[in-house]
Every structure is written in structure tokens, then in C-alpha cells.
Design brief:
Number of strands: 13
Distance between the termini: 136 Å
Helix content: 40-55%
CATH topology of the largest domain: Beta-Lactamase
Radius of gyration: 55 Å
Order of helices and strands: EEEHEEHHHHEEEHEEHHHEEEHHH
CATH class of the largest domain: Alpha Beta
Number of domains: 4
CATH architecture of the largest domain: 2-Layer Sandwich
Structural class: alpha+beta
């Protein structure tokens, strides 16, 4: 009895395949064949389709760009082997698939050692749950660099109790690099943001705690920002109270205001200009102001600082008064000498000794005293300083006071 596949032809000409089991019956001339014939055309077509699909799958796996299709089995003793591996392994990692199929350890040797426990743990969980496992790991490429692989594997239990995974490993190095570059940019952005925040915080503290007034106005003089020091110099309760007011209203002399506005409009910086400002309540305050012009997105901005010179002026006045006191003390000493001469000469005259000569000496000493007194009168004479507003109290002008009757008046614009 034998089984044979035989191709027959139907009456309509169609060729089909049969499986024939034939048995010889009888001897010699009486012998004949008895056979069982089974049409296996559908089975043959199914097997051919299966072979075609396997070929398609193999071609797809072998031509998969940047990836590998494979099967891996975990035995009951915990060891692994690869029943199938596509040709992409050799193209991507320089290892022939035959080597991986016969020596699984060689393939695992390409994986970064610190990533192996993560792969093992993913496999253990997949065996326990029966669910696919997803894992990213690094594999050493032929050039020595490590490339990122993403694996998705579906498990199924084999008859002997081992587990087989049908797996796809895709090279995701470019994606990982892009993600790392994005994270690096985010870190850099965060660093810049943190620095900017710290810088803004330092600026805010400097702005709020500065001992000088800081301000920003529009080109028309309307105050858009200032600190409390600036506001209080000009008589406001605080920065919130001062915003929205015009700083131009606080100039005493229109000429000063026009000069500073003209310089700023021309792009010049105003540095340490000493002025007299008018506070909100009408009182006067000596100040020093520095201003510069900025062009920002919202328009032209004038930015500067304002310093209250009241204490400095008081210190200068005290220094001046000390100088006058010292001068007066020296003058008193100078007066005392000729006065002593006059008193001595008058005593001698009263005795009748050389009266004419004694009178001349006394007159000379008296003239000396008169000159000293006249000079003292000039020094202590109060006159308005030409550099100050008429609204201010009278000031001691040392230059005008020290000048003699025939000296020209000092230049009011001289420093």
C-alpha cells in the first residue's frame, strides 16, 4: 500500500491533485488494483498560500528598514534561543543571523550591560501576565556607537511549557536623539528662565530698596514706573501714588525743564544735573538727576535716577559756616595785634613821651583794623546766589562777599 500525489484532469480540462492509496489484489493474470482517491487540491492550495505568506513575511522582515523581526524562546531553565531572525540584524548590527541563531549569547553581548536587567524583567512580567512587553534598550552598532532599539513582543506558551515571543525591534535612535535634544533645549530654556527670574528678582530688590529714586516716564513726562524713594523725594506717599503724574510739573525753572527735555530728545544723556525740584506740597528740594532715552516696543521711554541733595547741601553749608568761623577767628587774631599797638601807644602818649610819633603809630594800627573789619563785612554779607531760584532763601555767596570794592562781579555761570 502506497500513498501518491497524482495530478488528474477533469472532463472539463481542469487539472487537480489527488492523494491515491492503491493496493494490489490477486496474482498473475487475476491481479488488479484497488485504490482510495482523495481530492487534495484545497489542501495544496492552502499549503501554497502558507508558503507564499511565509515568503512574504521573510522578505518583509529581511527588507525592514532600521529593524529586525525575530522569534525568541525562553526555556524552562531560563535560557533563551532564537528560532527565527530576519536579515536586518546583519545590516544594522554587523552580526550574521546564522550566528545569532546558533549562539544567542553573542547577540545579547551587543546589548548595553546596564539595559539587560530591564529586558529580563520585561520578559518575566510578560510570562506571568501573558501580555506583550514593550521595552527600549541600547544595542552596540558596528561602528562602536550605541543605538536605541524599541521592542514589542507578543508571548505564547509552547507545549513543553516554554514561552515564545514573536517580536519586532525597531531602531529609534533618531527619535531618542531628537527627544534628548528637546530635553536639552528645555533644560537650557529652564536655565535661562531661572536666570531671568533671578535677575528680575535682583532688579526688583534693587529697584525697591535703592537709596536713590529710580523712574521711567513716557516721552511726554508721564510717570509709568518708579520706586518709593523717587515718589517720596517729590512728596508722594509712595510709588502707586506717583504713577500717572507728570514729572514736568516738578521743575522750578522752565528753562531747566526745557534744556533737559531738549537734550534727551536729541539722544543725549543727562548726567548728574543739579536742580531744584518742587514737591507735591509746594516745598523745594535740591536734587541731582541723570536721565537717558530708550526706544522700546511700547515707544520712547525716559529712564533715570533722582538723588535728594538736601543732606549734602546741609553738609556743604555746615562746612561753609565752619570756614567762616575759622576765618573770623583768624581775623580776630589779626585785629588783636594792631589793637594792642593802639592801646600801648595811647598809654605812652598819656605820659607825654614822643607824642607825635606815638600818634602816627596809633593811626597806622587803626587803619589796619579798619581794613580787616571792612574785609570781614564783605565776607559775612548775605546776597542771593545768581544760580538759585528767587523762591529760595537768601544764601551766603562767598565769591561775591570776598570780592573787593573795585573787583568785577564773579561770573554767575562759573563753577
Amino acid at each position: 500500500m502506497t500513498n501518491h500525489e497524482v495530478r488528474w484532469t477533469r472532463a472539463n480540462g481542469e487539472v487537480f491533485t489527488v492523494m491515491m492509496n492503491a493496493t494490489r489484489i490477486g496474482e498473475s493474470g487475476e491481479a488488479h488494483l484497488e485504490a482510495i482517491v482523495l481530492d487534495v487540491s484545497d489542501l495544496e492550495r492552502a499549503q501554497e498560500a502558507l508558503r507564499e505568506r511565509e515568503l512574504q513575511l521573510r522578505n518583509l522582515g529581511d527588507n525592514l528598514p532600521d529593524g529586525v523581526i525575530y522569534q525568541v524562546v525562553r526555556r524552562l531553565d531560563g535560557s533563551n534561543y532564537f528560532p527565527y531572525m530576519s536579515a536586518g540584524l546583519e545590516r544594522a548590527f554587523g552580526m550574521r543571523r546564522e550566528e545569532a541563531l546558533t549562539n544567542p549569547t553573542a547577540l545579547y553581548g551587543l546589548i548595553l550591560p546596564e539595559d539587560l536587567p530591564r529586558i529580563r524583567a520585561a520578559g518575566d512580567e510578560s510570562i506571568q501576565t501573558g501580555k506583550p512587553f514593550l521595552v527600549d534598550y541600547r544595542l552596540r552598532a558596528p561602528g562602536g556607537e550605541y543605538r536605541w532599539m524599541h521592542v514589542r513582543a507578543n508571548p505564547r506558551r509552547l507545549e513543553d511549557g516554554s514561552t515564545l515571543w514573536d517580536a519586532v525591534a525597531l531602531d529609534i535612535t533618531d527619535r531618542k536623539r531628537a527627544e534628548e535634544a528637546l530635553r536639552e533645549r528645555e533644560r537650557q530654556l529652564q536655565t535661562v528662565t531661572d536666570r531671568l527670574r533671578r535677575s528680575e528678582e535682583r532688579y526688583r530688590l534693587l529697584f525697591e530698596r535703592s537709596f536713590v529714586g529710580i523712574f521711567r516716564t513716557r516721552a511726554d513726562g508721564i510717570l509709568v514706573e518708579c520706586n518709593d524713594v523717587f515718589a517720596r523725594i517729590l512728596g508722594y506717599e509712595g510709588a502707586a501714588d506717583a504713577r500717572g503724574h507728570s514729572v514736568l510739573d516738578h521743575y522750578i525753572r522752565p528753562a531747566d525743564r526745557d534744556l533737559i527735555v531738549a537734550k534727551i530728545s536729541a539722544g543725549e544723556d543727562v548726567v548728574d544735573a543739579e536742580l531744584v525740584g518742587r514737591r507735591r506740597n509746594g516745598s523745594l528740594v535740591p536734587v541731582s538727576m541723570s536721565v537717558r532715552r530708550l526706544v522700546e516696543d511700547e515707544g520712547v521711554i525716559h529712564e533715570g535716577i533722582l538723588v535728594d541733595l538736601t543732606e549734602r547741601k546741609r553738609a556743604e553749608e555746615a562746612t561753609t559756616l565752619r570756614s567762616v568761623a575759622e576765618l573770623a577767628n583768624a581775623a580776630a587774631h589779626e585785629i588783636n595785634n594792631p589793637l594792642t599797638v593802639i592801646v600801648g601807644q595811647l598809654e605812652l602818649i598819656s605820659r607825654g613821651d614822643d607824642v607825635a610819633g606815638r600818634i602816627v603809630d596809633a593811626q597806622t594800627a587803626a587803619d589796619r583794623i579798619r581794613d580787616i573789619v571792612k574785609h570781614m563785612v564783605r565776607i559775612t554779607h548775605l546776597e542771593p546766589s545768581p544760580g538759585w531760584s528767587p523762591d529760595l532763601p537768601r544764601m551766603l555767596d562767598i565769591r561775591r562777599s570776598a570780592a573787593g570794592p573795585d573787583d568785577p562781579p564773579p561770573d554767575r555761570h562759573a563753577p
